[in-house]
Specification:
- Helices cover about 10% and strands about 60% of the residues.
- By secondary structure, the protein is mainly beta.
- The chain has one domain (about 15-185): Porin (Beta Barrel).
- Strands 1-2-3-4-5-6-7-8 form an 8-stranded antiparallel β-barrel.
- The longest helix has 11 residues, at about 1-10.
- It is globular, with a radius of gyration of 18 Å.
- The chain starts with a helix and ends with a strand.
Length: about 190
Amino acid sequence: MRILVLLLFFCLSAQAAFVSVNIGDSRLQSTHWVSDPSGIVGFSLEAGFFNESSNLIDYKLSFDVKRFGYSYDDGNESVSFWAIGLKPFTWSVTYKKVMFEVYPSISWIFAWSNVNRAMEERSFDDIFDGRRFCFGYGYRLGYYLNDNLFLGFNADYRMHYWNFHELHGGDDGWILMGGWGLSAQWNF
């Protein structure tokens, strides 16, 4: 509990806060059984701390709310997930206002749509089921237009545990979803 209070105090007193919005493609990236797969619009809102755009090499911490998933049957049907996530450490390199960053993340799925009944019962039945957690990574490349506004391209991917065996006769395993998009960030 002391560590949590210390972290909250440290984050709330941080000078380098930022907000970010990302929008882009989200689709199945790994081997799958879905016929005619395609993408959906992926979206995320992010807030974080410790972003110093004047540093050559920097670190930041952030939290996000994210939508990801995929569609199938030529876009007629879609599966989407909403998750709350943590990016515990994002490393960036900024040189002459051009920034490149990479990050790992962990997310907890709190809502979903169009998941079939068997998947919903076996994967989302318990609020703290390990299958509700997904791991991810991403990167971003762009340009600071001024000290506050950053615009760029991003890529964001999520690995989610899927019950292939119970649903389609295959082995259970991790499936990768995500894609490329656009990103905007405002530094306070």
